Amino acid sequence: MVTLPISSLPTKGLGLITEAVQQITGLFSRRFFFNALLPTFGFTSFTLAVAILGGGATSVWLARWGNLDLLARLLLILAYIAFVYLLAAAVASQWRNIVRLFEGYPLVAVARKLRFESVVGTRWHQQRMKELLSESLGRPDQAYYKYPPEKYLSKLLPTRLGNILLAGERYPRDRYGIDAIYFWPRLFPLLPDAFQRDYELAVIQYQFPLVVAFQSGVSTILCSAILLGQQAPPLFFLSVLVVGFALSYAAYVLSLMSAVELSEIQRSAFDLYRDRLLMAWPSVQDVTEEKAAFLRIRAFVVQGAQPIWAKPHDTYTSRHREDQATVIEVKGRRRP
Question: For residue 187, what pLDDT is reported?
């Protein structure tokens, strides 16, 4: 019988855990696993544990679990996993809305509906922005990351996260006349693979704490309601309430630096690769000929009309053959 040194057991066990995690994450996208499934499993389990402990019937639940046969236990575990997966899928479908919640857009919408002059927090950010941009005590380096240019003062949002992301969103419009809302989805596929991977990693890093903050807040509210209904001990109730909301706020604060990094990556993408978007855009002549051709092709496909798109199609293809030949000729001349 061969015995392993005790010192090697933790390393071996850690390696097995790491391998298991890699196999699990291989079944899902990294973004879904870290930003939906993992926090959903954690907070769902926490809420369930608080409900059991708060009722003071832990021994009863353990006894019921012990009386179940193996098949019933497996079915309950599978049902719980399926429930968590469905909740995680629901969270993943609301990533954008969760981010907008922490950006402060719901507060802006409510204020407009109620015809308030300003939103809570907006005036503070406007004053803070003026201080950072002032000539005497200004810190324009901080304002660059935290706020958009001064001309957008009236557009500021009531949260730090919202203004950080707004600064990155307004940068290409202010510098190059490019609206990031419309052109970022078109630029992203043209970016280098390494740049895309860095961006996707930054998205995971800034969304994960926001999902944790959101689910921590929801879980704390649910646990508080359950504990009130169970008439749990006041100290236990206050502990859950304070710890839950403290975790939610801490996670939100942690997301801010990741949001700064994400916004800077987006700025860099427009600084360095906006020419790819312009070069990939069709010319006016291309669009005119394509539109004429596809209108005739549509009539052919849908209505069974005669194939009469030869003229715009031939003009389009012949011109592009000439362009391609010119490019090849130029490249040949550059060779030594």
Answer: 95
Predicted pLDDT of residue 111: 86
C-alpha span between 336 and 325 (Å, rounded): 19
**Domain residue spans of the chain:** 29-101+188-273, 285-322
**Cα–Cα distance, 229 to 234 (Å, whole number):** 12
DSSP 8-class letter at 233:
-
- CB 170, CB 149: distance < 8 Å: yes
Q: Is the pLDDT of residue 118 over 80?
A: no
Number of alpha carbons in the 13 Å side-chain half-sphere of residue 88: 24
Q: Which amino acid is at 109?
A: A
Listed range (14-18, 221-225, 235-239) with the worst mean pLDDT: 14-18
Listed in sequence order, the residues at least 6 apart from 143 whose beta carbon sits closer than 8 Å to its beta carbon are 129, 132, 133
Q: Under 8 Å CB-to-CB from 91, ≥6 apart: which residues?
A: 35, 36, 39, 40, 98, 211, 215
User: Of 96, 39, 49, which Cα lies nearest the Cα of 247?
Assistant: 39
* Residue from 178, 120, 130, 134 nearest 152 by CA: 130
Q: What percent of the chain has pLDDT above 90? A: 53
